[in-house]
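quick one
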Amino acid sequence: MSANPLSPTPPSSATLASAAIVDGDVEVTFSGSTLRSRFSPFWLRDHCHQPESLHPETLQRQVDTFAIPVDIAAERVVVEAGGSALRIVWRHDQSTSVLPADFLRLIALTEGRERAPRRELWDHAAMQGRFPTVPFAEVMDTDAGLLRWLELVDTHGFAMATGAPATTDATKAIAQRVGYIRETIFGGFWDFSANLAFKDTAYTPVAIGPHTDGTYSIDSPGYQMFHCLQHDGSGGENTLVDGFKVADTIRRTDPAAYAALTTTKVPAHYLGDGVHLRAEHEIIALDADGEPRQVAYNNYDRAPFRLPNGRMAEFYRALKLWDRLVNDPGYEVAFKLTPGSVLLFDNWRTLHGRRAYTGFRRLCGAYLNKEDFDSRVRVLRSKVK
Ligand SMILES: [Fe+2]
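structure w/ fe (ii) ion:
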């Protein structure tokens, strides 16, 4: 089965117990369950699983949605033998639609929406002694190992793969195991030391405060991978902060600041190297359920913008609170990346920074797109039971 959201694979097979026409809708119940759901006739015709309505391989819709009569009505509903499917005979043309029990149950339970990832918000104390880690070999050699690594990233916003060969080839291979390496103004797979190759502080040995990358990108990189191949010197610890944890703290303690951070579109830009990128993001962007979907924060790259003076003052107050918390050691984990440990983190959730360092330091890595990571997780979940 495909992972197409029109028909995701349900966890186990369902059996229909009954089907009846109630007030023009079709009400179904399921065996061994109290689940009961009413579907409208139009929706049922639009989601018919007969091959002429739904392509059996691609799960693309074949039915002409707009040719379905708006007042379509079911004449008869029948539960197929064994309860595996619902069969409906339509009054206007006596045609038949069939919808599998599994599909109806999944929609009854989820309305066709994906479950939000199981997130565990963390601060400094919560992350002590439980750094999410999977051996590199497991990630590379088994689907279960890769899924475990990606689910740890989903849960905590970052995870490490340990025991990797300290080479660019091995790093590229594990990145490509997750998804396509994203091309940006910095290239695709990158491999650099402090050489100011680009007009960005990442290419210098100075300390970098917690931030997310690509605030100037409409689709900021979803994930980032770091692998330190060599460091002959001191300092250079990497820091991570759970942006959703900080968001949660502000939501609970300062609703006015939370409102400013979740509703103010903050422009950001990247100028130089022959490009002028520009995008706008809320510091904390919310999804349709009002939960944080993406944090985007890099004060260096913020572009000029102005609000009415009162609102501007409120925004600056909220921004100062945000910056104070993301720089608070109580929210941070700090660690030295060593050759062999590949860090993968969610750039829409986890802020990253780096302490100043001395000596020669060589870091390689890549950006990955949000959608490709999510796709890999869906496919792996359908394969790994
Ligand atoms: Fe960065």
